[in-house]
Design brief:
globular, binds nicotinamide-adenine-dinucleotide, Rossmann fold, two-stranded antiparallel ribbon, binds ligand PQ2, 27% helix, 21% strand, 3 helices
Length: 146
């Protein structure tokens, strides 16, 4: 997979599902100034409703508008998340939170340290190993700080 960092300021980003995992993704995306639309019957308490456009309903294929370049399928229903992936246009990139093999892209585990960002990924193979590595590396950086 090809690593890049994206400038998402004012870019329209679509999230389907508004639960715990969506809340984590939305926090990071709002921090980067993305223009967020969330489609979900229910919103997690950590999602700041006033910062997003919330469309309170269940997903339908017509929700996939061409202006979205990034789409996050964050429902707790893996077959629905996979349906979202197949409804998307070939030009749209879809993150499927419930399937290690099928995503067009993954979020990396991030460390921010003294003005640099370190991204860690197993390219979907093992989120658990990613998290463990982030914790070990963070401890090493803290220990070896001048
Ligand atoms: C890095 C991080 C970024 C982020 O999500 O922002 C991320 N997962 C994180 C946390 C986390 N993930 C999980 C737990 C609970 C368990 C635990 O603690 O172990 C926690 C902890 C928590 O939720 O607190 C389990 C889990 N994760 C995925 C599945 C589904 C599956 O495996 O198919 C399941 C099992 C679900 C189940 O079976 O129930 C899937 C994905 N998770 C990824 C990324 C992508 C691949 C990354 C890579 O390639 O390495 C991928 C494929 C899709 C994506 O999301 O992009 C983030 C910060 C980590 C940190 O640094 O703390
Ligand atoms: N990527 C990761 O880091 C990670 C970590 C743990 C779990 N997971 C996976 O992510 C999935 C979601 O986890 P969660 O904790 O956020 O679940 P959750 O139950 O907190 O949230 C699910 C959300 O999906 C919404 N939803 C359900 N059906 C919908 C529909 N038809 N249309 C639109 N929205 C719909 C619900 O309203 C809710 O807001 C889990 O099932 C698991 O497979 C991923």
């Amino acid at each position: 997979m090809y690593p890049i960092t994206l400038n998402l300021k004012n870019k329209p980003v679509l999230i389907i599902g508004g639960g715990k995992i969506a809340a984590r993704k939305i926090k990071g995306l709002l921090g980067e100034g993305a223009d967020m639309t969330v489609i979900s019957p229910i919103l997690h308490k950590d999602i700041k409703q006033e910062m997003i456009t919330w469309i309170q309903k269940e997903y339908e294929a017509s929700d996939i508008r061409p202006q979205y370049q990034l789409i996050f399928a964050c429902t707790d229903n893996n077959s629905l998340n996979e349906q979202i992936l197949s409804d998307a246009l070939p030009s749209q990139l879809v993150n499927v939170v419930s399937n290690k093999e099928k995503s067009d892209f993954y979020n990396m585990s991030m460390i921010k340290h003294k003005g640099i960002k370190i991204g860690i990924t197993t390219e979907g193979a093992s989120p658990k190993v990613t998290k463990e590595t982030r914790i070990k590396l963070q401890e090493w950086l803290n220990k070896n700080e001048e």
